[in-house]
Amino acid sequence: MNPAGPLLAARGLHKTYGHTKALDGAEFSIRPGEVVAVMGPSGSGKSTLLHCLAGIVTPDAGSIDYQGRELSAMNDAERSALRRGEFGFIFQFGQLVPELTCVENVALPLRLNGARRRDAERTALEWMERVEVDDLASKRPGEVSGGQGQRVAVARSLVTGPRVLFADEPTGALDSLNGERVMQLLTDAARSTDAAVVLVTHEARVAAYSDREIVVRDGRCRDMEHAL
Amino acid sequence: MSPGPRTRDLLMGVRFALSGGREGWTRTLLTGVGVGLGVALLLVTTAIPSALAARDARASARSEHTAPTAEQPGRDTLLIGEADTRFRADEVHGRLLKPEGPDAPLPPGLESFPADGEMAVSPSLDALLKSEDGALLRERLDQRITAVIGDEGLIGPGELAYYAGDDRLRQLGGKVPRVTGFDNSAEPEPLDPVLTLLILLVFVALLMPVAVFIATAVRFGGERRDRRLAALRLVGADARSVRRIAAGEAMAGSVFGLVLGAGFFLAVRQSAAGVNLFRLSVFPGDLDPAPWLAVLVALAVPAAAVAVTLFALRGVVIEPLGVVRTARPARRRVVWRLLPPLAGVALLYPMIGQGDEGGEFSQWQVIGGVVLLLIGITALLPWLVEAVVSRLGTGGSVAWQLAVRRLQMSSGAAARLVNGIAVAVAGAIALQMLFAGVEGSYTRNTGADPTRAAIMAMIPSGSDAAGRTEAVARQIDQAEGVTRATALTGTELATTTGDPQRTAMLTIGSCAALREVAVLPSCKDGDTFVLDGGDDPAGAEEIAKPGRKLYAGAVYGDDTAEAVRWMLPADTRRVAARPDPNGEKRSGVLATNGAAPRNLGSSGHASVYIQLDPSVPDAVEHARTAVLKADPAITPFHLQDTEQSGRFVSIRTGLLLGASCVLLLIGASLLVSQLEQLRERKKLLSALVAFGTRRSTLSVSVLWQTAVPIALGLGLAMAVGVGLGVVLLKMVAAPVAVDWTAVASMTGVGAGVVLLVAVLSLPPLLRLMRPEGLRTE
């Protein structure tokens, strides 16, 4: 493995839902510690690209290489293990388990990795402190605001020390002030752990937090850095 | 004129139920299917009495029991002989026919009389006789099939029945009924209070879970509806208005359910002809609910839907920004929840002991008491689930933690999920206890010993007693699986003829046959004996004196033959009677064939005891065939050591039938309810899988979420069921005993249904966990 090379790279990705081509030969790569914004209009294939890169969805064709391992060659259990251990996720909606308290939500990925409850919740609290939501530890998601909930989700996405963080419209449901606060915390925390961030957004102000922008249109990617 | 604000709100609710795209339709469909299943079962249940009445009417219309008869043959007379038989566990209704004139009454379902050696059969019997399975029966019913009995001649579409033409009936003279029509207007005996109580309880115990289920079904999709109502609050609807909109929506769903239910019912009714449950089949046309009950269902279901919706919304605060901020609802209180079961006990308590004196129970009081006790379960269960799960620790596996937290957050939904099954199990336990408690009163020890003779073939009087019985026995003895066929004939002994004051019974047979009724230290042909210790010794003690001249045979002078003079030999010995295979201890005189009086004519009666080899498959079928071949007029009786009241057995069968339907319905409802809850969490499940949660973790969590409330529900059901059972047993003054096997089996069946549902919901759960759930476009 070349340490200077890409951490995650995709080539010639194709994905079709019914008659709709979500990806049509998309290319993508990201280096360790890099924040890449994936932009594009609604329905352009941004989320599908993220889901393919994260091993959530299997592309119809093409290859995805993560540190020399081909994702499409892995079975479901191996991809799940990869997502548990190496990747972190933040979505726009519906990601916190409503019946668990905030600290239990943050500790969940650690528990899924086999950590003891007490240890997992101690680590979770440390991360909640870093994103300034430790006072919400015993509250349930239904009892906190949208911005607070997203910060809890940021803590949860980082709690396992992922190499790649996938964020799908993480500020989509937040006002601009809360959105910026979340982005600041997210990118700072990621950089402090040298995690790469794949950031799907259609907002330029969110994309401004990235090192590089990729535009997805009609299922194809265009690297704006190279285009300039 | 524009509608008022209330009507407008209700109509808007109806519109929401019917529009709203795929989401709205799915929700309405789920509610509709749920309510529809309940309505269909209600309609089927209300149609059962009419279906049973129709079966009785069909049976009466072809019966000869109270039919008009004639003394002499005429243009309109018909000789009809009973020739019922059984094939394995199925009854076969059979009649032998011999019309004596051109206007002889034709049994319903026949277009013409079958000629001698021909028969008309029901469609089911026709199919059975043509099948390989029916080959043994075909040997017995070997007449040529020339016609099929029409529906009007059958009590149900699955009935096995035949009419055979038989000229031999003429030879039996006045020994078979000579009818000029068909009728059975004999009034059935009124039901005793205990059986009435059982019937009431069967209906209550079966219908209560259906009602509970309907109440659950109208709450399907509640969370999404609350979010929609919150959106309406945002655009200016007030709190009352959104409640009316919700009521309108529930009403629309339940009316849709009524339509679906009517459709399901018609489908069930249409397919009823092909269903044979517990050996009962019903013609679709007979399965008609009473109109007033159908109207009651049509009105009560939507009204109940609205009431349940408003009741469910009473604790929910719908605000413009949603209902999610009301995270921790007020704790449930147990005090008022105890009121329904206590009121139920209070209603039932005054009736304790009434069954003992043959008194009557107040039907409404019984129904009210039992309904309140069972409703108590639905009131207590949410409190119990909440109280227990709030104390459960979240240590252990992630699956357990997810399940416990979910239960803690929405214990009401979990309790609703198992309410129906808990009510059904409680009712079933109470009924089983009552059935077991009163079973002794409706079960009789016959004294018969089936190991000595499985069948007793009664040869009708009128047959020539001399030699005929032995010939029949020899013929039966040849049949496969028959170990022994023992013939005994009997006639009367008296000191005078015409109008004897006292008679004794004379039993005639071989030494081996006589040993079936007496303990004989020694016996040879030509011996005679007087029985000691019989059930009716009075006549024998007075008449049976050795050396005395007696009359035997037609001592009453009412037969074609005359009584014959016979002297009881002086060397007649006294021997002890023993129960015959039918359990009867005979009295009177025993005579071996060589010592018996001659020329007794046809006044005697005879029976053949048939012992079977249990190791021979279908031995009983071979024996039945041999009996019928020997003489179609012989009636074989199957000897059993115990005998149960037919009505008691019917009620028990009804319970089994109904309980099967209710359990099926509850299983279906649980599945729908489970899927509905999973569908609500589709996005969350997909997100959890996205960040690496094992599917097995989520599946086990769902199983825990079902297992915990069901364990609590079944525990409560056991307690209430046993409590109700004790009260009911005390009401009928039966000894109070808990039949733990029945309790365990009823609880096991309930748990089995839930487990099955949990397993069936796993494939959809796995589908819902697919990453596609994350897609928003």
Automatic annotation (TrEMBL), chain A:
It comes from the Bacteria. Keywords: ATP-binding, Nucleotide-binding, Transport. Pfam families: ABC_tran. This is Putative ABC transport system ATP-binding protein. InterPro entries: AAA+_ATPase, ABC_transporter-like_ATP-bd, ABC_transpr_LolD-like, MacB-like_ATP-bd, P-loop_NTPase. GO terms for cellular component: plasma membrane. Residues 8-228 form the ABC transporter domain. One of its GO terms (molecular function) is transmembrane transporter activity. Signal peptide: none annotated. It comes from Streptomyces wuyuanensis.
TrEMBL record, chain B:
It comes from the Bacteria. Residues 202-313, 659-769 form the ABC3 transporter permease C-terminal domain. Keywords: Cell membrane, Membrane, Transmembrane, Transmembrane helix. It is found in: Cell membrane. Its main location: membrane. It is a multi-pass membrane protein. The chain crosses the membrane at residues 194-218, 250-272, 292-313, 334-352, 364-385, 414-435, 654-672, 710-729, 741-762. GO terms for cellular component: plasma membrane. PANTHER family: BLL1001 PROTEIN, MEMBRANE COMPONENT OF PREDICTED ABC SUPERFAMILY METABOLITE UPTAKE TRANSPORTER. This is FtsX-like permease family protein.
